[in-house]
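Ligand-bound model needed. sodium ion.
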Amino acid sequence: MPNRCLVRGSINIDEFFHVHDIVRPGETISSSGLEKRAGGKGANQAVAVARAGAAVDLVAAVGNDGLWVRELLMRSQVNVDSVAVVDDSTGRAIIQLSQEGENSIILFKGANYSAVHKENPPTMHPEVTHILLQNEIPFADTLAQLESSSHPSLPRPIATIFNPSPMPTAEELRILPWKNLTWLVVNEGEAEDLSAALTFDSSIVRPPPNDAPYASMSAYPVVMRLAQCIPTTNIVCTLGGAGVLAHVPALEGAPVYLPAAVLEAVRDTTGAGDCFTGYMVDGLMKLGEAALTRESLTAILKRSVQAAGMCVERRGAMESIPAGHEVDARLA
Ligand code: ADP
Ligand code: NA
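Prediction:
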């Protein structure tokens, strides 16, 4: 049976205004350029899964002003049959980029928060094996989708992957059914926020092996403390230019660490986390029902950090996600 990923998440139109300085209260300024690009974490991660080489359905919504984004996603091999077109504006990010390289962003949730699906969660393709979630849609929708993974009528369990960005509230985190979550993907800041929200005592962390490359990294105790709070969930913590640290309880022993890819240049890190996550999910999908080992996890993370690195070498977010064959050529 083939593997299939369902992404339930956001679609945004990112509008970049190039300005000399970010506008101040009461001021009117002109922009020297305007670029419109497709974005949203749901859309970005769905494209990354597709470019990595796997079948992916995106469950999302746009307004009539976002039909071109739906087209673009379709051309990127994402199945958009469940991207509803609603009577609202497509989600927007209005981004001012100053000459100094600063930015300031206004988000409008728009269609991402429209109630569009009669059933919650909407009917899934029967071949879905993996569900990938972020947090740019109503939390209730994310919850319903997470709970759908363990429905008794399913022929086999569905693996779930959650990249909680933006971070849910403390209350939302407490009601999250962590037992339904197979993989948590966070960056170091998110790992810190999560462990602060979920840790009630100052639990003791086993010291890392002395010669481990991550022994002195601040992320190590954060991830290990988080692991004590959510003991049945695998944790993957991305560390920007320092790579990735993964804690998988079933693989007894030390975490798996991979350094970042060696890059030609660091140009634009936007979308790198989404690219990493999509590639990681593709790797888990290709593994199928084979048991995860340290070796197979290392191989999955290696391809994911290479893909994310190539995304950093190129400007833009969605459009800078490399194709699987380009990643494999760099790894060869
Ligand atoms: P996010 O963008 O979600 O904050 P990170 O900054 O941790 O996530 O980046 C995700 C992944 O992208 C990293 O694990 C790494 O593989 C890659 N990456 C990010 N920044 C760099 C960099 N400067 N050099 C090489 N790889 C990078
Ligand atoms: Na990029």
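The mean pLDDT is 93.
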